[in-house]
Structure formats: C-alpha cells, structure tokens
Amino acid sequence: MKKSKFLLAVLAIGLIICLTGCTPIELSKKPLKTLNPDPIDDNNRVFYQIFVGSFSDSDGDGVGDIRGIINRMNYLNDGDYTDGRSLGVQGIWLSPIFTSPSYHKYDAANYYEVDSQFGTLDDLKELLNICHERNVKVILDLAINHSSNKNPWFQDFCSARNSNNTSSPYYDFYTCYDRNDPEKPAKNSFSFIPGSGKWMYESNFSSDMPELNFDNPAVREEMLKVAKYWLDIGVDGFRFDAVKYIYYNDNAASVDFWKWYMSELKKVKSDIYAVGECWDDDSIVLQYYEALNCFNFSVGGVNGKILDAIRSDNINAYTNYVARFLNSIKEQNSDGMFMPFLANHDMDRAAGYLMVSNGSAYMAANIYILCAGSPVIYYGEEIGMKGSRGGENTDANRRLAMLWGDKDTVSDPIGSTYEASKQNNGTVKQQLKDDNSLLEHYIRLLALRNKYPEIARGQYTALNSNISTVGGFSITYNNSTIGLFHNTSMYETVEITLPAGFTELADYIGLGNASVSNGVLRIGPNTSVIVK
C-alpha cells in the first residue's frame, strides 16, 4: 500500500496527522484498567432490546418467554461489572408482553395481563427483582395510540356505534367519523366498523389496530392508569411506540399530550426511564424532546450517519452532527438524553451491511456505544446476527430467533422466511470461546464506557480535522475532561499530535493498537482511544 504523509490543520486544537501504512486486523488484547464495581446511578445506561418471543424459550414450545430471559440473565448482566463474563448491559427493553392475538404483541387485547405465551405476572416480578438486585432497569414497550380490535374496549365501541348507544362509555373511545364527514382527515387511514356502512374508525397501521380517541378524557385516564399499574408492579419505565400517532399528522397536539402524560407519570416515579419512537426528521423529533427522550433515527440504519461515517471514511461529519444534536436536545429539555442505535425490530439488521470480517461491525459498535446518553443494543447485534425483509413483506425476518448455539428451543417467529444458511457470524457459544469475536468486543466496550462517566454524561465538543478518517470529541464532566478519538480507516494507522492538556493514553479498543510517545498518539485502524 502506498505510504504518504499529510499535514493536518485542526481548528482550535492543532492536530497533526500522518497516515503510515497498513496494519493487519487484529483485536487488541490490552486489558482495561481498574473498573468501578457498579458505576451507574442514573438513566445514562446501555439498554438491550429484547424481542421476547424470539429471545430464549424455557418450556420447549418454541416461543421465547420471560422465564427464558431469567435463565439468560447471567449472559446479560451477572451483577459483577469487573469479571468480564457477561455483556454488562444496565437496562433491558422488553417488546410488548401484554395479551395479544399477534406474535409481535403491539396490539394489546388486555393491557393489564401478561400474555400466557410469555409467562405470568409472577415471572415478570421475578425478573424485575433479579434485575434490580443487579442494578439493571427494565422498561416495557407500550403502544397506547392503538389497541387490538380484539380488545373488549373496541368490541363495546363497535356495539355502541352500531346501536347508536351514545350513553355507552365506549361510544367515543376510538377515533371515529361518519364516512361522509368532511372533517375526516384525508391523510389518515380508516376502516369500516364491522356491520356498519356508515361509521369508520381510524386505523393508521392496520384495520386490526384501531386508534384510541385521546380527545376523550376517559381514554387519557385509562391509558394513564395502564402505565401507573406497571410502574406499581416495579417496572422502571417505558418505550412508547409511535408517539406521533396520538394525533397523527398533528405533532403539536401529540407533543402536548406527551407533556401532560409524562408530567403525570413523573408524579408516580420521578426518575422514570422513558423513550419515544418518533420515526421522523430531527426537526420533528426535537419537538417531542419537550416531553420525553426519543430514539435518533438519523444515526441508525442503512442510511444512517454511523454507516455513512464508516462507508465514506468521514467520521467528522458524524462528530459534528452529534455535537450539534446534543446542544439541540439541551435547548429543548435540559434533562434530555441522546438515544443512538444501529438497528431495531422494524429495520433490517445491521450485520447485513456492517461486516464482521472487515471490521466495520466493530467500529460501528465503538461509535454508538462510546457516546452520550443511552445507547440501545438490539438483541443479537452483539454477535452479528443477520435478518432482513429482502423480497418479503414481513418484519418477522428482522426478529429471528437468538443464536445461542446450545439447546435453546426458541424458534423463528410466524411468517419468517429468512434462510438460516445466511447466518455466518457464529453463535453466542462459539463467540464466547473466541477472544477476537464481536461479542467479546462488546463486553469490553461496555466495560470501557462504564469506566469513564464523562462518555455518557459529559459536554461534547467536536474535534474536527481535514482528514476524514479521524476525529472525535473533547468531553467534560464534573471538572474532568477526556479526549475520545475514532479512526474509521480499515487499514491506515494515524499519528496525532495531542492537543494541549492531553498527555496520557488512558484506554483504547478496536482492531488495531494505540500508543503515546512524546505527545504523539498513534492509533491503528478501526480503533478508538481515550486520552487524558
């Protein structure tokens, strides 16, 4: 490979970078220094998203369940942050567990029951107890904008409408219009009430998922009651599905609802962990930050800024974006958190476009885990699980059975068509035996993040350069400042003259090595470093 040197003018910090050839892809085995035994005491923690029916099966019926999660807790977090034997997540997000006719459970038929496929309320309480003993928070996925059409509320609503029983408490429980009503929103979707050629109910996702009417105070109080019920059980908060669908195509009204809703829930639990799904442009997402944190869809996915940073070798575009977005969050909500991720249950899995073999999966993990706020790992991401719609119109292919590699009987969900032969990155069992595996990298990565409280909580300033493969942040928290640098090149080692005040290599992680000599930091390819 051609060797060359470039002079780098760096704004405000005067970095000098030179590219110095090619190094082989090897995982650094540099041990982490002394770790804090239990460093997390707030909501700035790494969460792990579990699609319950696909995670781990305890009773042999092929469906994942809560008992299966209990059985796998030592994998997720064994309660010891120093032993390096568990993934070390500090939070778990459970996909909907409420009684529902579907495999995905996003259409609740009863918001107050655990679906029997997943176990019992006692199972959930046991899981909560284990998690809380290990300082792991648990949040439930809660879709309150719509219910199942099998929900008794909807059945009573249909009966009341068909019989013109305006005195029924369910007559206005769901959003409903006369088919000829000129006020019926043209951009929203509607379905006819069974047995009626007149009344149409709002159904933006499916006719099986009728939208609740939040202009009705009784609906607001009922959905507040639902959340309070689960908080009283002991859950730590919620992931709220489809937050902009409370009043679809009216973000201002939806934001006002969430401000009211969250203010009421904080009266029950002041430190509630809450995050909303607002799949939209940042300008819209930031509006919802007035009420609650929201996932950042700009950084994740096949079109996201993390992949762009790796694919285009331009980490500076990403670091500049993050610094700006963090400031924008604080302008909306001083308590707001950044919520980065690579993929989720509604997206093609990241391992389909972030390869393990060339190191991009390792580098992507560094970029979003070593970042502010509360990153979210989608189950199986840590082992490079694959899954995509492909030519099929089913999200089941994105929610496949976890690859444990042991005798777990969990099966792929109903409707999945993804070929098992495409899963070529190995199982949990296989990767735990390999120090260079993606899973072992995630274990070290979470431990490294926990070691430096600045990463999750600090004030970020982008460190820009005119060499696109290297860049990072200066991060300050509680009068302590660290430097975080990423080298996204797959092959090039980079030398950086450290800015004034940074003299010590604290830690590094990735596929290359790092060292400091005479004020110059040498950072290998696909590697991230922390300097003091």
Description:
- There is one protein chain.
- The protein has helices spanning 66-71, 73-76, 121-133, 152-162, 217-233, 251-268, 282-288, 305-311, 315-332, 360-369, 428-431, 438-451, 453-457, and strands at 17-22, 47-50, 91-94, 98-99, 110-114, 137-142, 176-178, 190-192, 199-202, 237-240, 273-276, 293-294, 376-378, 459-463, 470-477, 480-487, 492-497, 505-510, 514-517, 520-523, 527-531.
- It is an alpha/beta fold and 532 residues long.
- A hairpin with a 2-residue loop joins strand 15 and strand 16 (480-487).
- Helix 5 packs across helix 6 (251-268), helix 8 (305-311) packs antiparallel against helix 9 and helix 10 runs parallel beside helix 12.
- The chain is globular.
Quickly list its features:
532 residues; alpha/beta; five-stranded antiparallel β-sheet; 13 helices; 21 strands; disordered N terminus
Overall structural class, as computed from helix and strand content, comes to: alpha/beta
Give the low-confidence spans. 1-34
Radius of gyration: 24 Å
Number of helices: 13
Query: What portion of the residues fall into strands of 2 or more residues?
Result: 15-25%
Which descriptor suits the 3D outline? globular
Largest sheet: 7 strands, parallel
Strands of the largest sheet, in order across it?
12-11-10-6-3-2-13
Oligomer: single chain
